[in-house]
Amino acid sequence: MSTTPKLDQGTKPTYSVAVSSVKELANLNSIPSSYVHPTLTNCEANDSSPDDGSIPIIDFSLLVSDDPDERSRMIEELGKACRNWGFFMVVNHGVSESLMSSMLNKFDEFFNLTAEEKLQFAEKHVLDPIRYGTSFNVLAEDSHFWRDYLKIVVHPQFHSPNKPTGFREVAMEYSKKVRDLVAQLLRGISITLGLEQQYLHNILNLDSSFQILVGNYYPPCPEPELALGLPPHSDDGLLTLLTQNGIGGLQIKHDGKWVQVNPLPNSLLVNTGDHLEVLSNGKYKSVLHKAVVNNRAKRISVAVANGPAIDAVVAPAPSDAPAQFKAMVYKEYLEYQQSGKLVGNTCLDVIRI
Ligand SMILES: O=C(O)CCC(=O)C(=O)O
Ligand SMILES: [Fe+2]
User: PROSITE patterns attached here (predicted)?
Assistant: First the structure.
């Protein structure tokens, strides 16, 4: 990949990039050396446990039930899932199967556009509303990742590429449905933290929440044991909701081990992000996760990152315990994270007291 990171001191990061894509590499018999991850040659990719059914399941219909007992029981489950895993599957969430599969299909159609069409949307700056790119963080990484992406800011302003046909309508509906779901989950989470149910909504100004819709495209990889789709990372923001095209690859770190995630049919996968770790003053850990690749079938995942308002100041909610994190404006956090200054660290380390 020919990328030339350019970081002018004191200015915003820019990319001077002839972005190439892993989709164009999928027909090779071996992967270019820049995609080989030295630590994987001993098959770390396979060093994970299968999903044994212990990943928490949240029945959304009970979380919003009129029956107060059912509701309290599910809120308790939600608290346990955030505390012990930072990850759960939501079932009966009300987002239709057809909407989820249309969203996956529209991203598939996008990635099938010509390179020239896609490059109209090539990433230039981390806060650009529409960013097509490849790998993980080209400014900071030594070796590359087997993944192309399209990231779109869909709230508070909605953006959409003008191709493929129908992408805009599906993306608008899907992101709105996910936002509503997230608002309900965050009400439950506020309660689990001993806060008033609208606390997170109000303090983070979630009427203007920063929401990004991300399509991840992992073509079949000729040497999957040498490559990674995404490195271990945590997500910024509050909650990320993910769906995939029936092909597995997501792994989460739990109790020091990598666990393969096998989603229940029609479930949405949820992981807690860095800013929930800050808000909860470390009670809820932002879960580390990664994506492995395979040589059989392309994998597409759609992740929706749901954050605070971009200008919200995020700090631990008031409690008796000493604050573990410094306050930081969400926008500064995002810029720092993508600046190339973080090598192998999470931005949380920068604000940890
Ligand atoms: O594709 C996946 O399973 C993970 C995607 C992800 O972690 C992300 O987009 O941040
Ligand atoms: Fe992620």
Answer: FE2OG_OXY (PS51471)
Distances (CA, A) of 48 to 119, 191, 197, 254, 255: 36, 34, 37, 10, 12
Pairing outcome for strands 57-59 and 230-233: unpaired
Look up the CATH number of the domain holding residue 276: 2.60.120.330
How many domains does the chain fold into? 1
Q: What is the Å distance from ligand 1's center to 196 Cα?
A: 31
Phi–psi pair at 316, nearest 5 degrees: -60, 140
In a domain, 320, yes or no: yes
Q: How many beta carbons lie within 10 A of that of residue 266, not counting itself?
A: 16
Hey, whose CA ends up nearest to atom 5 of ligand 1? 303
* Ion ligand 2, residues whose Cβ is below 5 A away: 235
Q: What is the DSSP string of 46-94?
A: G--B---S-S-EEEHHHHT-S-HHHHHHHHHHHHHHHHHTSEEEEES-S
- Strands of the sheet containing 230-233, edge to edge, are 230-233, 289-291, 250-254, 257-260
Instruction: Give the ligand with the smallest distance to the CA of 274.
Output: 2
Percent residues over pLDDT 70 in the chain: 91
* Global ipTM: 0.99
Distance 275 CA to ligand 2 centre (A): 14
189-222 confidence digits (pLDDT tens): 999 999 999 999 999 999 999 999 999 999 999 9
Whole-angstrom distance, CA of residue 316 vs CA of residue 201: 14
SS3 166: coil
CB atoms under 10 Å from CB of 115, counted, come to 11
Q: Can you give the pLDDT at residue 167?
A: 98
Residue 196: which domain range? 33-351
Cα 224 from Cα 219, distance rounded (Å): 11
Which residues contact ligand 1 via a Cβ below 6 A? 214, 216, 230, 235, 242, 249-250, 289, 291, 301, 303
